[in-house]
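User: Hi! I'm working on a homework problem where we have to compare a predicted structure to a textbook description. Could you give me the structure for the chain below?
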Amino acid sequence: MDGVLRISHGSDVHRVCACCSDDGTDLLAVGGEHSVDVFQITPSSSKKIASFHVGTRITALAWSPRTISPSASDAWTIELAAAAVDFGLHLLTRSSASDENVFPFGGGLSGHHGRVNDMSFCGGRDRDGSRYVATVSDDKMLMVWDLQPTLDIASGITSAAAPSHRDETSSPQPRLQPTAYVISFPHPLTTVNSHPSSSKEFLVSDCHGSLFLTDWRSDPEQSEQGSWRHSSVVELVEPHTLSTSITGLSLQWTGFAAWRRDAFNIIGATYGSGFSIWDLSKIQGGKPLHSETCFPEGGYQFRWCPTNTDYFAIASHSPDKGAVIHVYNMNYVHAQPNIIHVASRPHRIRDFDFMANHSKSTLAVALGREIMVFSLGVK
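Assistant: Happy to help. Predicted structure tokens:
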């Protein structure tokens, strides 16, 4: 493929995550076997600006809205969260005035006891957007972590010396361990999304074909049930996946859901061989507005394009046909997709994401030990 920017990572790449913050749209985080690297991407070049040694394989990444790229300001700040295969969570920071800092949290008995599959900072446009980060896991729990707590969980005493907002441009200061608000669900959870227009809801999907619009700020004591359903504002279902899971025909845990950033009502997801689109203004009993087959062998990941917002992409989960991505137009979901053959078999796509800084729709794709960045116009 001509016109492709290739980035060698040095170890197998398991996660890629593009920054969508207004001042960080040229940044790409890459999670490997032991570390998270941050690259500044232009149409023709890449520059590594931070490298965080975590020590174990990365399973999820999320950008903080506080992030500011060096291309946007001389006083730049890198902040993101990472989950590792040992269930540990890490807050990763670097700035123009300080070196890389890895702050571990959520490990041991206080956190998850299953693989962390996805994470997302809180939505909205206020300061809380960088204060709270949500994680979902195979242990069936959604945890919302307060990264700036005023309560020292080791002593149970409110600390007057713990400001709610600290200056990351100074040397890292001792900080309190984050506290978590926990919501349990019936089945293992696969993805969690927030939306720029709201700081109240998270979109959570499970492996059995259900999606939940979850108001995590609601009070469980106000509910007679006092369970996970107290926080479920809307429950959506993918009927085929739900039926196969109930009958025991599902061979693997699947499910990848995504919120369209410019449209609160539009949600997309891929389950098994197909994808579905929901419009929250047309609930239809929770059933999808559109459902189509994408990959008979199984789809993997669902990503909305932030620059051309009608576009979304799904990758093949199987290496049988090589590394393939299908790109769809929301206005023509029944039409043949744009099929991108990234690499021949036995390669398969580990992860991919859309970059947010290019006028053209641009994909960053994890393939083995390499990241490939290219626009959709590249054949």
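For your comparison, note the following. The first strand starts at residue 5 and ends at 8. The first helix runs from residue 128 to 131. Good luck with the assignment!
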